[in-house]
Amino acid sequence: MEKISVTIDGRTFEAEKDRCVLDVAHENGIYIPSLCYNSEVTSSGGSCRVCLVEAHQGGRMRLVTSCNYPVRKGLEVKTDTPLVRRIRRGVLELLMARVPDSEVILEMAAAEGLTEPRFRKDEGESERYKCIACALCTNVCAEVVGVHAIAMTERGADKKPATPYHKPSEVCIGCGACAYACPTGAITLKERDGVRRIWGRDFEMVRCSVCGTPYIPVAQVDWIVSRTGKDRSFFDKCPDHR
Amino acid sequence: MAAINSVEQLEAYRRELASAAKPDLPTVLVCFGTGCQANGAIPVAEAFMDMVKEQGLQLNVNIGFKTTGCHGYCENGPLVALRPQDILYLKVKPEDVPEIVEETVKGGRVVERLVYRDKVTDEVVPRYSEIPFYKHQLRIALRHIGTIDPTSIDDYILAGGYAGLAKALAMQPDDIITEVERSGLRGRGGGGFPAGTKWRSCVAVESDVRYVMCNGDEGDPGAFMDRSIMEGDPHAVIEGMIIGAFALGSHQGYIYVRDEYPLAVKNLTAALEAAREKGFLGENILGSGFSFDIKISRGGGAFVCGESSALMRSVGGDVGEPRAKYIRSVERGLYDKPTVLNNVETWANVPEIILKGAEWYASMGTEGSKGTKVFSLVGKVNNTGLVEVPMGISIRELVENIGGGVLGGKKFKAVQTGGPSGGCIPERLADLPIDFDSLTEAGSMMGSGGIIVMDEETCMVDVAKYFIGFLVEESCGKCTPCRDGLPRMLDLLTEITEGRGGEEHVAMLEELCDLLTWGALCGLGTSAANPVLSTIKYFRDEYDAHIRDKKCPAGVCKALITYSIDPEACTGCRLCAKNCPQECISGERKKPHTIDTARCIRCGVCKDVCAYDAVRIS
Question: Are residues B330 and B202 part of one domain?
Answer without folding.
Answer: yes
